[in-house]
Amino acid sequence: MSGRKLWLAVWMCCAGATAAALGAATPERPNILVLMADNWHYEHAGVNGNPVVKTPVFDRIAREGVRCTNTFGPVPSCGPTRSSIVTGRAAHQLEDLANHGGTFYGKFRVFVDALAVVGYQVGYSGKGWAPGIYEGYGRTETPLGKRFATFAEFLDARVAERPFFFWIGDTQTALHSWKPGSGAGAGIDPTKVHIPSYLPDAAVVREEITDYLASVQRSDTAFGQAIALLEARGELDNTIIIYTSDNGWQMPNGLGNLYDAGTHVPMAVRWPGRVRPGRVIDDFISLTDLAPTILDMAGLYPWPEMTGRSVVDVLTGRPSAVARDSV
């Protein structure tokens, strides 16, 4: 077993291990940035074939990294899906965390804690693990670590020699942010939007979709600002970027429904030096795979209780140990 993988084994056996006791992280550990849009369906990205919406930042990550065409959320609801993401476990293993707004008990391990133990500085901004409660149930911080007002604030507080994990959760794609008239204001032509078969082709539906697509564009712009900040600080090429969503859009058959519209999400991963730019991956990926994958990216072994699996092999083009025909 390599030294870096041994750290996690020691930590799993010795609950008293701390990040300070482990010392500085090894140089090979990359920064990891997760860009998580709320309620954003697979179809609504330019690089995924949508001719109307403009998502230049997502398209860039796909162009400079890999684009995953068959990524699905394990539950068509943000709370349970985010619980599966941080634990790497199926919702049915997580007690009331399988529900929207559950209680996060301290007995459920989260990958962010493991990253902190080996020297990562961790945090999030926007919508992290939510909705739900954790205080008084065995955790003193959220399952994604400390909350920061902005990514810039986190970077300013960071010790430069240590790698970081940061999660930016944007909710502009959620229904409450679909501003009436914003689609027209963004120049999106309602006559050109795609109306799926499960929705009526009516003017009011077309206008609603244009307002949603305008929110997708605003979210993409916000994520672009975070990437620009990395570039300005010379950190971009040492940072893995995972850009995805938690579940489908808030339309009938979408959020809260076990159809593709509720579970199929966009995902692109930029990993300089490890993934060949421009590849398209059709393998089935579950968002539950993010926890073991991120641990693997950091040089750590996934935990036995994780039902998700690392997809580093899939992302990097190595032969996959497990071929899936479903998720």
Radius of gyration: 19 Å
Structural class: alpha/beta
Uncertain stretches:
1-27
Q: Going by CATH, what is the homologous superfamily? A: Alkaline Phosphatase, subunit A
The main pleated sheet reads as:
8 strands, mixed
User: How would you spell out the order of helices and strands?
Assistant: HHEHEHEHEEEHEHHEHEEHH
What is the multimeric organization of the chains shown?
single chain
Share of helix, binned = 25-40%
What's the number of helices? 11
CATH class: Alpha Beta
Strand order of the largest sheet: 6-4-7-1-8-9-2-10
How many distinct folded domains?
A: 1
CATH architecture: 3-Layer(aba) Sandwich
The average pLDDT value, as a whole number, equals 92
Strand content: 15-25%
The dominant shape is globular
User: Between the first and last Cα atoms, what is the distance in angstroms?
Assistant: 31 Å
CATH topology type: Alkaline Phosphatase, subunit A
Q: In total, how many beta strands?
A: 10
